[in-house]
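Tokens for LysR family transcriptional regulator. Go.
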Amino acid sequence: MDTRLLRYFVTVVESGTVSAAAQRLHMTQPSLSRQVRQLERELNLTLFLRQSGRLHLTTEGREFLETAEELLHHHREAAEYAAQLADGRMARVSLAAPTTTLTDIVAPFVATFRSIDPVPSVSEISIDSEVHRVLSSYDMVISPVRWPHTAHAPHLVNLPVWAYVPLDHRWAGQEHVDLADLVGETLILPTLRFKARRVFEAALDHAHLGPVTTLETRHSQVAQALAAAGRGVAVLTDDARYGLHPLQIHHLGQPLQIHLYAGWRAGHHAHSSLEDLAMRLRDFCQARYAPKSNLSAI
């Protein structure tokens, strides 16, 4: 349906007469009358009764008026939104991240959004999600993966893989623990869907080590709860909970870390806006994590 015909119809109703509406629309009265009759033919409705040279809304015309006004409102909104997109502006932004990143980084970052920022939506994804699919499904993906060269993926921060112990543990006064010493403990590990577990396993393989006793859980908060209960040492990248003490895990004198990136597809209409958002997120991550982990930005 041609929205011009709807606009002509609404203007005639608002103006009271065809002649007054024609003046507002900068067109001739006969031309406007033809357009109104064309709309009636397309709708198969009689919108006006014509009596003594005046138009009177029919009952069906009055009911259709509300629909016409709503359609015109949505049309204006769509046109305004399209103009924003064409200018590279964003009214909304869709973000996605794996579980721990979403909980500890993305959600707290969203809490800092201002009224002038785009309205965010946040989704949880698997760390093994197919790269091209997630880049086409979301405006920005925050994840500890290396993106293809076709994507824009600035580095945000390096996050330590922590060994969490209760405050009465013999290591509670230390800042780090060597991987070789750690494997002598009962280790509480997340499943392989967590990047921390994969980095830890890779370090064990490299050092030709293996933990003696392990407990595995699908939930990182449960892992920390078990550590707080004295059931072992939790190996995670999550923020500390339950009063646990974090220890950096060292292997060959270097801390185990995961590298966090913000990725979006090449050619995104709002590239500049996403780049600005990524830099704000990087600053947020540095302020949140750098003081306690001595991380460096790129």
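Residues 3-86 form a domain with the Arc Repressor Mutant, subunit A fold (CATH 1.10.10.10).
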